[in-house]
Design brief:
Asp/Glu/hydantoin_racemase; globular; Hydantoin_racemase-like; 221 residues; amino-acid racemase activity; Iso_Racemase_Enz_sf
Length: 221
């Protein structure tokens, strides 16, 4: 059975387990998946310094736990270490940010980001440009307050993100909205059911992106 490794750059086993469950629900039965967490760093990455510091830990996790995996998912919105992993041996690697932006922009849709981390706004904008969809990016809408505190209250988190989604659509003119964060995975699934515009949950988007890459490799073999 081909195996996928989900790497959580946040140092939280509970968050990793949640992410793996969401990813598993998106995978065909023929695939296996497991998750690893950062061994050091914060339980939730909220700024650019923490994101950059996570990249070596992501590479370490891939080298140590990914030997027998056909591909990897980097499950933090900002994709720390993605280029490091892609440069190692050519196995496909999907990042939440890149994959969800590409999906949101399909068909030329204008898209926004709803998230909880104001200190990552600049990084997220740069990622849109790097992914080649900067011209379709309508900007970011943020929840209020400490993101780590908000993340401990699932209902409050969902409602705060719902308001950010509305602002993306009604103020910025977004035709699709990405929920920007791996630890926001459960809220993203719930919000996707609440809106008529496409709300992109990043973990399922990364799974779909990785599967397409794997299928392309198989077809080329």
């Amino acid at each position: 059975m081909p195996h996928i490794l989900l790497i959580n750059p946040n140092a939280s086993r509970a968050t990793t387990d949640m992410m793996v469950a969401i990813a598993r629900a998106e995978l065909p039965a023929a695939y296996g998946i497991s998750g690893v967490s950062a061994g050091q760093g914060p339980g939730m990455i909220v700024n650019a310094d923490e994101l950059a510091a996570a990249a070596p830990e992501v590479e370490r996790n891939w080298r140590e736990a990914g030997r027998h995996s056909v591909g990897a998912i980097i499950s933090a919105f900002g994709d720390p270490g993605i280029e490091r992993l892609r440069a190692l041996d050519g196995r496909p690697v999907a990042g939440l940010c890149e994959a969800s932006m590409l999906e949101a922009a399909q068909g030329g849709r204008r898209f926004g980001i709803a998230t909880v981390t104001p200190e990552l706004a600049g990084v997220i904008g740069e990622k849109a440009v790097q992914a080649g969809v900067g011209g379709l990016y309508t900007g970011i809408r943020l929840t209020a307050g400490d993101p780590r505190v908000l993340a401990t209250d699932p209902q409050a988190l969902e409602e705060a993100l719902a308001q950010a989604v509305r602002e993306c659509v009604e103020i910025d003119g977004a035709q699709a909205v990405v929920i920007g964060g791996g630890p926001l995975g459960q809220a993203a699934i719930a919000l996707a059911r609440r809106f008529t515009v496409p709300v992109i949950a990043p973990i399922p988007a990364a799974v779909r992106h990785l599967l397409k890459s794997l299928q392309a490799l198989e077809a080329a073999a």
